TrEMBL record:
Subcellular location per the Swiss-Prot or TrEMBL entry: Cytoplasmic vesicle membrane; Endomembrane system; Golgi apparatus
Native source species: Aotus nancymaae (Ma's night monkey)
PROSITE patterns in the cross-refs: GAE (PS50180)
Principal location: membrane
Protein encoded by which gene: AP1G2
Pfam families in the record: Adaptin_N, Alpha_adaptinC2
Keyword Thylakoid attached: no
Homology family: Belongs to the adaptor complexes large subunit family.
BP-aspect Gene Ontology terms: intracellular protein transport; vesicle-mediated transport
Name of the protein in question: AP-1 complex subunit gamma
Transmembrane residue ranges: none
Amino acid sequence: MVVPSLKLQDLIEEIRGARTQAQEREVIQKECAHIRASFRDGDPMLRHQQLAKLLYVHMLGYPAHFGQMECLKLIASSRFTDKRVGYLGAMLLLDERHDAHLLITNSIKNDLSQGIQPVQGLALCTLSTMGSAEMCRDLATEVEKLLLQPSPYVRKKAILTAVHMIRKVPELSNVFLPPCAKLLHERHHGILLGTVTLITELCERSPEALRHFRKVVPQLAQILQTLVTTGYSTEHSISGVNDPFLQVQILHLLRILGRNHEESSETMNDLLAQVATNTDTSRNAGNAVLFETVLTIMDIRSTAGLRVLAVNILGRFLHNSDRNIRYVALTSLLRLVQSDHSAVQRHRPTVVECLQETDASLSRRALELSLALVNGSNVRAMMQELQAFLESCPPDLRADCASGILLAAERFAPTKRWHIDTILHVLTTAGTHVRDDAVANLTQLIGGAQELHAYSVRRLYNALAEDISQQPLVQVAAWCIGEYGDLLLEGNFEEIEPLQVEEEEVLALLEKVLQSHMSLPATRGYALTALMKLSTRLRGDNNRIRQVVSIYGSCLDMELQQRAVEYDTLFRKYDHMRAAILEKMPLVERGGPQVDEEAKESKEAAQLSEVAPAPTESQASQLLDLLDLLDGASGNAQHPPLLDPSPGGALVHLLDLPCAPPPPAPIPDLKVFEREGVQLNLSFIRSPENPALLLIIITATNSSESDVTHFICQAAVPKSLQLQLQAPSGNTVPAQGGLPITQLFRILNPNKAPLRLKLRLTYNHFGQSVQEIFEVNNLPVESWQ
C-alpha cells in the first residue's frame, strides 16, 4: 500500500517552513521516498502530480534523475496534462549527455504531426531546448512543414526550433532556405523577429545562404523603413520606439549582408541615414537602435558622410548620463579610431573629460582612446592632459597611463628636449609603474642629444635631490651624473637658474642612494658605477670614493660585491688605465621610424634569401591534418608522401655553375587579411632544385595602438597537396609596428594543381577575442605552375 504523500502546494509550504537545512533535507528525502513508491506502485493517472513535485525538488538543487523514465511515459500518454508535465520534465532532466533523450524522438515526431496546436507547441519547445544533433537531423523535415502552418503560434515556435537546429547542425541550412523568403512577407512581428533571427544564423554559417539572402536586402530595408516611419503602436512600441527588438535584429542582419558587398551597401545607405536621424535618443530603446545602426554603418561599405554621422552619434553617447552607454561609446570609438581618425578627433575634448570618471572601467577605456588619439599635431596638448591624469589616476591605471605616455612621446616628440622633459615628468610622478625599458630608452635618448647633456644632468640632479624613492628615476639620474658630472659642476645651463653644485654634495647624494633602504640592488649598482666614473670627472681627491668602493667589496649582494672588488682593483693595480676605461660613452644615434623600417625590410629580405631548413622526423610527424577544411572529411584519403628534401640535391658544385638552371622569377607578395590595423602578408619562395616545393612565409604586422596577443594561424590545402606548418616566431604582435610574427608553410605540389589556401586566425585584440576563417583563391599563378 502506497503511503499518502503531500500535494505540491503543501510540499512547497513545508519546505519553506523548514528552519534549518537539515529539516529541509529531511522533508525532501521523505517526499522523494513517497515519489519513488508512487512511480512504482501508484496510480498512473496521478503520475504527473508526483513528477511535478520531483521537478520542484530538482529546481532546489537536489538529485532527481530517477524521474527521467517517468518523463518518457508521460510524453507517450494521450492526455494533455500528462504531456505538459512530461515535456517540462524532459526539458529539465534530460540533455545530450543522457542516452534517454533519444527515446523521445518518435514521441515528438508523432506529436508534431497530430495537428493539435498546444501539443505541437510543447514538442517544439522541448526540441528547441534539449534537441541533440541526431534529433535535429531526424526531425528537420517535420519542423520545415510547420514553418508554413496557418497558425502563428505554431509557426513562431517552429522558427525558433529551426534556429536551434541550425546552431546544432549547420548542414541543415539548405532545408530551411526556401521557407524563409515566404516568411518575410508576414505581418506578425513575432514571426518576423524569429525569421530574421533564422536568416541571420543561416548567413553566419553558410556562404551559399549569404549569397541567397543578399537578394532580399530591399525587402528588409522596406520592413525597417516601415517600422521607423510608423507612428505609436500600443502593441509593439517600447518607450516611443516601434518594436526596437525587431529593428535591432534587422540592422544586425543588414550588417552581415552588406559586409564587403558594394551593391547591398548602396541599397541600405539612405535607410541607415534615415534611422540615425529619426530615432528618439531620450530612452534606452532608441539608444539600442542607434548603436546597432552605428555598428552596421561601420561594418558595411558606407559613404564617408554616413560614417561621420555614426561617429557623431557615438560622440553624443559620451554625454549620456548612463554609464553603460558611455562605456559602449568609448569602446566603439576605440575600434573606429584607426579607420576614421579625423572624425573621432572631433570628440577629443569629450573623451579627455571622461578620464575623470569615477568608474574604473570608463576611465580605462577613456585612457586607451585618448592615447590612440595622440598624433603629431596635438601631442603637446594631449600630453598635458594625460600627465595631469597620471598625477591623480587610480593606482591600477598608473602603469598603463605611464607606458602609454612614454610610447606616444617616443613616437610623436616634437623636440628632444620636450621628449626628455616628458619622460622625466613620468618618472617623477609614477616612476615605479613604468615599463622595464624606460630607463634604457631615456639613457639612450640623453646620450644621443649632446646639446642637452648639461640640461639633462641638472634636471636629473634636482629631481634626485628631492626624491630618491622612484627607482627608475634614481637609476637614470645616477647614470647621467656619472657620465656628465663635470657639466653639472661647471654650472653653465641655458634657460635654468644658475646654481653652483659642490663636489661633496654630489658624492653625498650618491652615498645616500647607496645607503637607502628603498634602493634596489640594480639601483645601488648604478650609483656605485656613477661614483667610480666621477673619480675621473672630479678635480678633487678620490679618497672618499675609494673608501665607499672598498666598503661594498664585502656586500652580501653578489653582483654589487663583484662590481666593487673590480673597481677597487682598478684603483690599486690599474690606476693608470682608469681614465681610459671610465671615459664617457660614445654618442648613441637613435633610429627614427624610417631607419627602423629600412632595418625591418632588410631583415625580411635576409629571411627570404635564406634556404628553409629541412624538417626533422619529429617535425614531420607533427603535420597538422587540417586538409578536410577544404575537401571534406575522409578517413581513407591518400596523402602524398612526407617531404623528403635531399641535402645533396640542394648543393650546386662550383664547376656546374655555367650549366645550372636560371633561378625562377620572383613571386610577388600578397596581402590576404587586414582588420583594425592587423595585417597578414604572404611571401613566396620556390627552390630551383625542387620546383614542386613552395615555401610561404606568413608575416603578421600590427599598426594599431593595442598589442595582438595569443595569435595563432592555421592553414589547410586540398588533399592532392601536402602542407607542413612550422612553429611561428611568437604569439604576440606588439602595437605600432612592432616586431612582426613570421611563420613558414611548406607546400608540396607535385601535380602542379591550382593552389587554394584556407586560413584560420585566432587572436585577442582591444580586449576582445577574434576568430577569422577565410579562403585565399587569388594566389599568384607562379606559386603553383
